[in-house]
Amino acid sequence: MNDAFELSKRPGAYALLLHLSRPLRLPIARLRRPTLAAGHYVYCGSAHGPGGLAARVGRHLRHGKTRRWHVDHLTERGEVVDVLCVPDGSECELIRRFGRMAAVGEPVAGFGSSDCQQCTTHLLSVPAAFDLTA
């Protein structure tokens, strides 16, 4: 990922392409403590608070943060490989778009989508060569 990019301070949606080099057991009792296999994942979220996309994505890129959201477990243990920001976009639209692609799976029902009425999950397992802009 290019560290020189500038993020929008507008609200919107974003997608993080993450790589786990080894399996990760998620300590989330509500999700039954699932284990994610080593591999690539896309997490889609929204940023509507102060600082918009820049603040939320910037938080996800920092290490040593308090684990507040499901995705924090992945960003602390894995590597963020790429980021897609969509000012004024919808995280559910991103999930639907990526979910229609070949070889995409839903590894954990309820992950990042506990307040969503539309989506089963906001985390997808994807092939290693996955392109967020496709």
The first-to-last residue Cα distance is 16 Å
The computed structural class is alpha+beta
Gyration radius over CA? 14 Å
The count of strands amounts to 6
Shape: globular
The run of helices and strands is EEEEHHEHE
Helicity range of the residues?
10-25%
Strand arrangement within the widest β-sheet reads 5-1-4-6
User: Uncertain regions: pLDDT < 50 for 5+ in a row?
Assistant: none
Percent of residues in beta strands: 25-35%
User: What is the typical, i.e. mean, pLDDT?
Assistant: 92
Structural features:
134 residues; 4-stranded antiparallel beta sheet
How would you describe this structure to a colleague?
The protein is an alpha+beta fold. The protein has one domain. 19% of the residues lie in helices and 26% in strands. It has helices at 52-61, 71-77, 91-99, and strands at 12-20, 24-25, 35-36, 39-47, 79-87, 123-126. The strands form two sheets. It has a four-stranded antiparallel beta sheet. The longest helix is centred in the middle third of the chain and has 10 residues, at 52-61. It is globular. The two termini are 16 Å apart. 29% of the residues are buried. The mean pLDDT is 92.
Quick recap of the structure?
With 134 residues, the chain is an alpha+beta fold. Helices cover 19% and strands 26% of the residues. The radius of gyration is 14 Å and the shape is globular.
Helix-strand blueprint:
Layout: E1 12-20, E2 24-25, E3 35-36, E4 39-47, H1 52-61, H2 71-77, E5 79-87, H3 91-99, E6 123-126
Antiparallel strand pairs: 1-4, 1-5, 2-3, 4-6
